[in-house]
Write a structure and sequence with these properties.
- A hairpin with a 4-residue loop joins strand 4 and strand 5.
- Helix 2 crosses helix 3 and helix 2 crosses helix 4.
- The strands form two sheets. A three-stranded antiparallel sheet has the order 1-3-2. It has a three-stranded mixed sheet with strand order 5-4-6, with no helix packed on it.
- It is flat and about 45 Å long.
- By secondary structure, it is an alpha+beta fold.
- The chain is 41% helix and 17% strand.
- The relative contact order is 0.14.
Length: 144
Amino acid sequence: DQVPAVVEPLCAVFRRQLKAENQKYTPERARVLDAVIQIEGLFDAEQLLASLESSGYRVSKATVYRTIKLMQDAGILQRVLAGGDQPRYQLIYGTRPNDLIVRVDTDETISIDVPELIELRDRVCAELGLRASAHKLQIYATKA
């Protein structure tokens, strides 16, 4: 029997990270965070900016890029290493891990669910007296 982890609200996690870096939780950063929460799957900064604009919000490109970096530092987002010109990101905080296979020949990403990996991660951490907060598995593959 495992006790479910209590997940802190994302805005609280983000505010704490910003405070640690002597930054403010501005309305623009709040909008970027809200937009990220609404996106399903992988996204790049341009898609995030387009999502904000289509919602009627005016946020500068520089603010979007800086906020993405701050959210990575806070453990809210992770960068997904894939081909293409733009780095892509995914929401990781408070979600089940989104492990991926990255097709380097087609730049396609395929989400995979490997429950045994979560068990292995938790067991390895427990043996070291630790509790896992997240993990990332990316397999790079091409057609056989």
